[in-house]
Amino acid sequence: MLPRLLPRLPTTRLLGILLVALALLVTGCSAQATSTQGTSAGPTRSAPAWAHGMATVTESALPAEARTTLRLIDKGGPFPYAKDGSVFGNFERELPRQSRGYYHEYTVPTPGERDRGARRLVTGQGHETYYTDDHYQSFKAVLR
């Protein structure tokens, strides 16, 4: 069926279709390549052992509010939300299993939200950091 259609199409239209197909092919390939590594910005880094198999995001690629929260975590506070620094239970089992108390969570403010919103940073006692923007449904390992 395709060979019968090709001769009837004007050359410019055929060229346009081929360019769109090529763009979709290239975009699909690059999206597949980044989905295993996750989001990153800047130089390519290999993920640390604790992030093995997870999507990753560099600190510089996080939303500005998450970077501000990271600075507060590094300083030890003060934190704007009472629940910041509380134990994260990992009930969803999205992070590596650890004993209770290993992980702690911090709110990443979401502009326009009246409550704490869905974004969080979770830290582990081994100095690992994870980011979620969908209220613990998925996490990315933060490369710092």
UniProtKB/TrEMBL annotation:
<keyword id="KW-0378">Hydrolase</keyword>
<dbReference type="Pfam" id="PF00545">
    <property type="entry name" value="Ribonuclease"/>
</dbReference>
<dbReference type="GO" id="GO:0003723">
    <property type="term" value="F:RNA binding"/>
</dbReference>
<feature type="signal peptide">
    <location>
        <begin position="1"/>
        <end position="33"/>
    </location>
</feature>
<dbReference type="InterPro" id="IPR016191">
    <property type="entry name" value="Ribonuclease/ribotoxin"/>
</dbReference>
<dbReference type="GO" id="GO:0016787">
    <property type="term" value="F:hydrolase activity"/>
</dbReference>
<dbReference type="InterPro" id="IPR000026">
    <property type="entry name" value="N1-like"/>
</dbReference>
<dbReference type="GO" id="GO:0004521">
    <property type="term" value="F:RNA endonuclease activity"/>
</dbReference>
<keyword id="KW-0732">Signal</keyword>
<protein>
    <submittedName>
        <fullName>Ribonuclease N</fullName>
    </submittedName>
</protein>
<keyword id="KW-0540">Nuclease</keyword>
